[in-house]
Each structure stands twice: as C-alpha cells, then as structure tokens.
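Quick one: structure for this chain?
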Amino acid sequence: MVTLHQLRCFVATVEHGSFTRAADALGLAQPSLAQQIRLLERGMSTALFQRVGRGVVPTEAALALEGYARQALDAVEQGSRAVADADRAVTGTIRFGLFGAAHLYLETRLVADMRERFPSARLSLVGQNSMDTIELVRRGQLEAALVALPIDDSALSVKPVTRDEVVYVTADPDRVQRAVTCTDLAAATLVLSEATWGDADYTRQQLRNAVQSVGGTLQAAIEVENVETALEVAALGLADAITARSVVRRYQDKLPAQLHCFSLEPRLYDHFAIVYRHNAVLSRPVQAVIEMAAARLRQLVRSTRA
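Got it. Here's what it folds into:
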C-alpha cells in the first residue's frame, strides 16, 4: 500500500536529486528515507530512481508519478486546512464530563486546549463526582466523559485511559518508613475526602475492603468534601491522608508544609476511562476533546511517575 509518507519522501528526492539532501529536508535519517523509496518502488512494481554519481535521477516512471504525488499531498494539505477552518467555525456549546478531582489533574490545561482548537465555541466541563457524571452520560445529557472507574453499566462503552497510584500522605516522614499495610490503615488517624459520598466513593470502597480483609475497620478521624482540604489538614499534621500521587504532586506548592507519599501494601490505583453510550455517534468536537483530555491525563501521570 502506498502511503503519504512514501510520497513525501519521493517528491523530496525528486526535488533534491539526492537521498541524503531529501532526508535532511524532511528531518529524517538517510537510511529511513531510502527504505521508504524502496517500499514505494515495490508497491509500484518499478524502479523510480537511478544512481548517478552521488545523486539520483528520476526514471520515466517517476516523472509520470510526480504530478499525481504532488496532487495527493496538496489534497491532504487542503483537507487539513479545511478541518482546521471547520474547527474554528464551530459554535454552540461543547459539553464534556469529568471526574470530581479533574481540576487537580488537567481541567485548566484542557480548557486552554479546547479554546485553541474551537475558539468560537462555548465550553462546558461538567462533573462533581464520577458517579454523577456517568449518570449524565447514561441519560444522554452528555455525549462522553472522562471518569474514574469502575462502571457497572452494560449500556456504556468504556475506553481505559490510564491509572494513578493511591498513596498514604503524611507531613511526618518518620511516621512511615515502609509501605503502609492494611493493618497500619486500620490504626491510622486519617482525614478522608468525599464526605458526602462516603463508602459509595470507589477509592473508599477499595480502602475499606482492604482493611476488612485483615479484620480491621477503616475509620476517618476527619471527613471533608474535597481532596485539597484533606491535604491541607495533613500538611498541618492533624491527620494523614490517602489520595492519588499525581494530586499530591500538583497541589504540594500550595501547602504550608512538605507532604511525603508512601505506597500502600498491596498497592491501590485509581483507574480512569472515557465513557459514552453504546452505538453513540460522537460529534467531531467531542471526539477531539476526548483525545485532548486523554493525552493531558496520560502526560500528567507519566510525569508524576518519573
């Protein structure tokens, strides 16, 4: 199969009369460009260049192909410009759902991405908690959303994006010198977020089940609604928190004291995914937002692991 990349390499070689100069112009290694020319010749079942000294000259077949190759590349360029123009012309409201702590991961950057891509559109990012956001997708009030798993709904398509480790967070590095076990959690003085959702929150469910597996009970000395407050309480040394590693890294500079993260034993993770209704035909703007949101979240989690 002939590819656009092969045609670009071909046209550059015709223009420059040399594999080396054509590769330099395209920012490729010379062997890579030469391989693309060989693949194109194989696809066309004919030789396209003859070596002359240190350069190459096009064959009659190459000269016959050149005009069509340029037309194909021009058509793709025009199509790309048309899509960009269409994106700039998008109006109306683009609605997209997010999990509750998305503002600590990507929300502001996602807004910037969306405004750059769709400058004429109104933007609406919706979601206080993944369970609420999933319900909006289920009802058709949102086309799609980026949420925290799990989802027990056969009517929804689920496309995993990434995961983020759930860690034990304390202001006292001497308090924990090793991975935190389920027994440690049962005895800890904890501040937990998601006070309204409580045990309906999936991270809470994971923690509760892990502690119960060793005969303990997960108890919060302090409950608050949002994770930022939980981290601020932990930074004051009033209790230890449990949250995702990336959230701690993003919020650390706003805290009054350094927080230290320790893995749980066994390790726990928050899993994130794109959800939408089965057989839904997603609009082009929402498809673009899905790609941007997934890329931003993966980038952030990778940087945290580094």
